[in-house]
Amino acid sequence: MAEAARKPRPVRCIVKLGGAAITNKGELESIDEESLQSACAQLRQAMSDGAAPEKARGMDWSRRPGDPADPVVDAEGFAGMAGLGLDSNFVVVHGAGSFGHFQASRSGVHKGGLHSTLVKAGFVATRISVTSLNQEIVRALAREGIPSVGMSPFACGWSTQRRNLASANASQIIESLHAGFVPVLHGDAVLDESLDCTILSGDVIIRHLAQLLTPKYVVFLTDVHGVYDRPPTDPNAVLLKEIEVDDNGGWSIVKPALQGNRKGVEISVAAHDTTGGMETKILEAAVIARLGVDVYITKVDTEHSLRALKGDVNTSSDNWLGTVIRAAK
């Protein structure tokens, strides 16, 4: 894989904003504005080194359709600041949720075959959808004063070989981190050397970036409190608080102690989800954990998500709701 010659800057955290957490998955191309705003505000809190001003100075100076007036630009305020007061060594990757999945599944983009006019049209439609969501997430981060820049894997030259990552040039990501920006990537439609095209999921992107950047920790923000032993809609579902991954990739449930099969986790994936849902999350998180990087999975817009983003998680305490996946000691 092609990588940058420049040494990566130490990254504190890679954050996955789950599609189900920041969009309304039952409604086509609908953003959950409250959850997204909360996630961005908590990210700013986690990045703050105490020197950041209490009120964020917004960096979205564009005019949106329907805005009654031109955007407010606090040029003097920014000019008088010595710095933003933020630890910006974060990378954000977001899922698609109600963006992209519909277009991809209707056209079969994830199966490949660009000789088909339908697939080619679907590739275009999918990328329009996911990049529009990326822009809205970058806007939301910028409104919180976070210096974020959107980056599409397709545009950066990422590609696959039979759906496995084949080329992933991270030079632009690394240069952006060095410049003090927060890169914001997303699941994308990409070219595939064997299938012509497919869908590259945000979870696979995070796994590769974790291998390259070795962050202190990784956070998955979802619409549920973590990984359960069965679908969380089941009233008997049990939250798995701690999972350990051994050197061979095998994993076991440490907390709570479950009777019967310690590895028994049922997976439910929405029919329209072309990227594998929770199953992909667990598998990719296990690969990251084997690197010695703790993975925290918790619910967006909660006190637990703020603690995870700060890296302030203590699994011996019962007052944090989420799942920690880490390497076996």
Automatic annotation (TrEMBL):
Record-annotated Aspartate/glutamate/uridylate kinase domain positions: 87-298
Record's keyword terms, sorted: ATP-binding, Isoprene biosynthesis, Kinase, Nucleotide-binding, Transferase
Region (Disordered): 48-68
GO annotation, cellular component aspect: cytosol
Highest taxon above the source species: Eukaryota
Keyword Nucleotide-binding: yes
EC numbers on record: 2.7.4.26
Basic and acidic residues bias spans: 52-67
Catalytic reactions of this protein: isopentenyl phosphate + ATP = isopentenyl diphosphate + ADP
GO molecular function: ATP binding; isopentenyl phosphate kinase activity; kinase activity
Residues given in the record as ATP binding sites: G97, D223, G277, K281
GO term, biological process aspect, one: terpenoid biosynthetic process
Enzyme class, spelled out: transferase
SUPFAM superfamilies: Carbamate kinase-like (SSF53633)
Tagged with keyword Acetylation: no
Residues given in the record as substrate binding sites: A96, H101, G202
PANTHER family referenced in this protein's UniProt entry, alphabetically: GLUTAMATE 5-KINASE, ISOPENTENYL PHOSPHATE KINASE
UniProt family annotation: Belongs to the isopentenyl phosphate kinase family.
NCBIfam families the record matches: IPPK_Arch (NF040647)
Protein name: Isopentenyl phosphate kinase
Organism of this sequence: Triticum urartu
Gene that this polypeptide is encoded by: LOC125544869
